[in-house]
Amino acid sequence: MTRALITGITGQDGLYLAELLLSKGYEVYGLMRGQNNPKRPLLEELIPDVTILTGDLTDLSSLIRALDTAQPDEFYNLGAISFVAYSWENAHLTSEVTGMGVLNALEAVRLYEGSTGKQVRFYQASSSEMFGKVQQVPQTEDTLLWPRSPYGVAKVYGHYMTINYRESYGMHASSGVLFNHESPRRGPEFVTRKVSQAVARIHLGLQDEIVLGNLDARRDWGFAGDYVEAMWLMLQQDEADDYVISTGETHTIRTLLDAAFGAVGVTDWSSLVRQDPQFMRPAEVDLLIGDSTKAREKLGWQPKVSFTELVTMMVNSDVEEQKKLAGLS
Ligand code: NDP
Ligand code: GDR
User: Fold this and answer.
1) Per the database record, which ranges form the NAD(P)-binding domain (predicted)?
2) Where are the beta strands (DSSP E) in the chain?
């Protein structure tokens, strides 16, 4: 039985990846931080077959211990402080977790490989946020990186450290440069879920308006369930490598609003949306659109869920959730 260890198991991608690996017959271990993580009950309900280990990416010894227990064939490093806006307010902590945490994970794997003689295939969750200031579109594996946030800078560090461990120690370390991917499990701080939740509440008469920041930024949004398949495929290759994972379509926040309100039959949302400078960023990533030709050709990967299907799925899920919370169903 193949064994996998996932950091960031309580996050959106951790859950989808764990479900995918369990469906393939893996023995799955998940690293969870904190002495009493509030997400533990939900995790135990959704993925009871995953063995939870405690540890933190900033604590190298906890990672070494987790590897000793899990004895993984594959290590997926999904743990991070992942909210870009928060990274300006907590730049040092973001650098420690999202940047140095990758070094800790790589080092723990290298030590484990050295002491056991066993190979562990390593996946690093790199990000399109690394492209930052627009240099070239669509963005590929070769596009110049110009990060625009402390989060983006930390991800660049982790990305190059992963490549460096591959080149220095011959580790099977791959980096997936994933563009934005969403789902009904997306954290409510991210714009897609903030919109789908608010649209659901407005539709049910529980809220009057949505307050947002920049409506003109463009993102290449895909479905998280499709993207975790790409992570797995990367670790099934003989050679480790880096891959862009994206849909190749880009949409503004305005188009997101069209699709989300459209899902509940509203065509003119102008009186329901207000902009507030508090949600503007000190530096914005204006345009993301990825070219995933390499992944499509070498991994045989392609996204299955369209933008409209994704947004409709999220709004419908939030309508049901909000009905339950409000005692309407
Ligand atoms: P989430 O924010 O949903 O999950 C982040 C996970 O990291 C959580 O499980 C969180 O645990 C964990 N974590 C936070 N701090 C630490 C720490 N100090 N030690 C160990 N774990 C920690 O992110 P996603 O699931 O959306 O993303 C997964 C990864 O992919 C992240 O690295 C993200 O940066 C990256 N990424 C995401 C993209 C996206 O569009 N979703 C696109 C490109 C990259 P807790 O629940 O305890 O806070
Ligand atoms: P992003 O996602 O920063 O791309 O990072 P987010 O959904 O936070 O922002 C996307 C765009 O929407 C604009 N925006 C708002 N964003 C939020 N969160 N809240 C608002 O009210 C709002 N109004 C407008 C933003 O300015 C931005 O342009 C995500 C994360 O998952 C990262 O971890 C990951 O690496 C990247 O995607 C790829």
Assistant:
1) 5-314
2) 3-7, 27-32, 51-54, 74-77, 121-127, 173-178, 181-182, 210-212, 218-219, 222-223, 242-245, 251-252, 273-275
d(CA 136, CA 139): 6
Q: Ligand 2 in contact with 219 (CB < 6 A)?
A: yes
Please report the ipTM that was assigned to this predicted complex.
0.99
Token pair 């503007």 is found at: 280
Peptide bond connecting 184 to the previous residue in cis, omega within 30 degrees of 0:
no
Out of 1.10.10.10, 3.30.1300.10, 3.40.50.720, 3.90.25.10, the CATH code matching 191-219+249-288+305-325 is 3.90.25.10
* pLDDT by 10s per residue, the chain, length 329: 999 999 999 999 999 999 999 999 999 999 999 999 999 999 999 999 999 999 999 999 999 999 999 999 999 999 999 999 999 999 999 999 999 999 999 999 999 999 999 999 999 999 999 999 998 999 999 999 999 999 999 999 999 999 999 999 999 999 999 999 999 999 999 999 999 999 999 999 999 999 999 999 999 999 999 999 999 999 999 999 999 999 999 999 999 999 999 999 999 999 999 999 999 999 999 999 999 999 999 999 999 999 999 999 999 999 999 999 999 97
Ligand 1 atom nearest residue 128's Cα: 43
Q: How far apart are CA 264 and CA 195, in angstroms?
A: 12
Q: Is 129 a catalytic residue?
A: yes
Q: Where are the domains of the chain?
A: 3-182+221-245, 191-219+249-288+305-325
Instruction: Output the pTM of the full model.
Output: 0.98
Distance 285 CA to ligand 2 centre (A): 9
11 Cα distance to chain centroid: 8
- Tell me, yes or no, if 151 is annotated catalytic: yes
